[in-house]
Amino acid sequence: MATSKVEGSSSLRHAFGGVLSVFILLLIGVVAFSIRLFSVIKYESVIHEFDPYFNYRVTQFLSKNGIYDFWNWFDDRTWYPLGRVIGGTVYPGLTLTAGTMWKLANSLNIPLSVETVCVFTAPIFSAFAAWATYLLTKEVKGTGAGITAAAILAMVPSYISRSVAGSYDNEAVAIFALIFTFYLYIKTLNTGSLFYATLNSLAYFYMVCSWGGYTFIINLIPMHVLLCIVTGRYSSRLYIAYAPLVVLGTLLAALVPVVGFNAVMTSEHFGSFLVFIIIHVVALVYYIKGILTPRLFKVATTLVLTVGIAVCAVVVAILVALVASSPTKGWSGRSLSLLDPTYASKYIPIIASVSEHQPPTWPSYFMDINVLAFLVPAGIVACFLPLSDASSFAVLYLVTSVYFSGVMVRLMLVLAPAACIMSGIALSEAFGVLTRSMKFHITKYFECSHTEAPAKLGESTSTESSAPLENMTKSDTTEKPEVARKEKVARRKQKKEKELTENAHVKPVSAKKEKRPLVLPLEASIVSVFLLIVLGGLYVLHCVWAAAEAYSAPSIVLTSHSHDGLHVFDDFREAYAWLRHNTEVDDKVASWWDYGYQTTAMANRTVIVDNNTWNNTHIATVGTAMSSPEKAAWEIFNSLDVKYVLVVFGGLVGYPSDDINKFLWMVRIGGGVFPHIKEADYLKDGQYRVDAQATHTMLNCLMYKLSYYRFVETDGKGFDRVRRYEIGKKHFKLTHFEEVFTTHHWMVRIYKLKPQKNRIRGKSRKSKLGSKSTSSKSGGMTHKNPWN
Fold first, then answer.
1. What is the pLDDT of residue 217?
2. Are 149 and 421 in contact (CB under 8 A)?
3. Over the stretch 26-44, which tens digit does the pLDDT of each residue have?
4. Where are the alpha helices (DSSP H) in 66-113?
5. How far apart are CA 242 and CA 273, in angstroms?
6. What's the farthest any 2 CA atoms get from each other in the chain?
7. How far is Cα 270 from Cα 538, in angstroms, rounded to an integer?
8. Distance from C-alpha of 205 to C-alpha of 250, rounded to nearest angstrom
9. What Gene Ontology cellular-component terms does the record carry (predicted)?
């Protein structure tokens, strides 16, 4: 009866714990969703940044025309006159996910617009990512660590920065796919289930559809498999977790048009194939060892290793040949930038020009992961006590993500789940030790305080009950002697069983005594718990502040606070609305590539370059035009059939991310293709200046003129609030461009190319207007190469 009661109470406790865990996870999902809504509450339901506008435009096309037209869509409004095949150059995971959600909502008679679904996709998947983190951490260190890690991930600023409402980018769904793929891999590794291995391949396929960062998965998992093999931790579960992923995952990845045969032809995937061969050789060795005698096993091992080394040598030779035939050794530019942080700045300035591709600073780590930076080392130590396949994978994931985040600030997003997992493990282990210590001291105190009274009560009750018991035993012995003998035998057996159990419990007691150092003093435990709670509260405050102030503002609508109050700068949408309503549908707009997606989506006008950056020569052409004098720039834009030029200028309001600050990248990218553009011509003693000490080339280039035209009229001095000095050339006129629109705060300026004038040779123009002037026009219209 006692054992059944104990089992019943334990099962009830587990059931209650399960219900409580589900309730806590639901609350974590609600927190993850709601903390990302500050952008909608403070501003409005609007798409953020630059890339999300392209994704929104593609989702609109998908929901309107269907998936078959989406795969075959040729977009003639981008990269004029080249165009772009959208279905074969975009990762479709985000678009298909949002389109499916929109279609499902409309089938349930929920009237949601495509824009609304796009705005709230990232917050919804942030809740899914938190739950996936719980599942992954639970497989590594248990339920407590999983719940803690999920709560931390739901609020970590690094993830919030890419998943606020309106941040409709690939990372919105890719981080969930990344964590869920890792969870299914660890689940398969722990269980050896082929069912979870198949699900793991499907999750990897969704990751491939969603983000180019899938190469991180297909390289991290082989590294972990190789680590397990080298450290002697090979098992059949490891084979089941890895082999189906390589075979089925690669076949599925090749179905994605943007990946295609790159899944088997690029260097990012070769490591997985090499480890695939190695694990089969190891599996064959273990299999032979189980069926042969030791003597035959040595012979067979020699044979298998010989054949295996030969096969590996052939495969490596083929891979080396393929790699050597590629100028970039089979690696993409971004991958080479991760392996060699100086590669992009040397050879591919278009990659180095992106701000999110720059290495982070130390304060950015504290901003994005805050106190997790101090908890991660404790989590690493906890993973080694004891070390398992799952915990070793978590440590490897952390180490690699720390390296990649140090190379590229954008990959702080990949570090965030690893830091949350390690911090959750550290906090769970710390709270486990502290609460166990408090429980030990409290129970010991109550036992000591109540031992005297129960002892006295026990003596009195034993004396009172001894007399009737003696009478009963006497009567029983006289009436039933055989029963008394059986009771004696039973008592002897009970005594022997007690002695055996006491002897059996000697070792556990000694073991417990050996673990006594883990029991901390009561005062230290209480203070430590209090400090951890305070630390958690500070982390929550920082996360809420980051979500509300640092990462909620959309880049298309800017705000600033001053003594006059709140100022809203809505110049971008003002400029795009002007283009949409005051230009022809077929007009072409030239700008730097940063604003291409927004111009196409919001102004519905054809652009020369955009944020896809797939054609470096085309971008260099625009950079060369911006870096050239006005006449040469006009010839370049006119050859591209450009009618309007858009520039972003922040000198009046102090907006630092304007085109003047980006101008040196235009010069470098243009000079990389057209050698007559030299960066040194725009620098004065190695310094980039736009004041009176600026170079003649700088003061006469198109970007300077379009940015500072009539700027002196604002304050009479031409003081640039971003560069913090007066401009050098204040009074000048435009000969080949005319200003057609400038926004309220001068942040966006739009110019129109003037029509080409008649060219008349000779000193006296009035006397040569007849047939002679006609012949002179035909002779004067020489077509030069505008890029030379």
1. 93
2. yes
3. 999 999 999 999 989 988 8
4. 67-71, 93-107
5. 11
6. 156
7. 45
8. 8
9. endoplasmic reticulum membrane
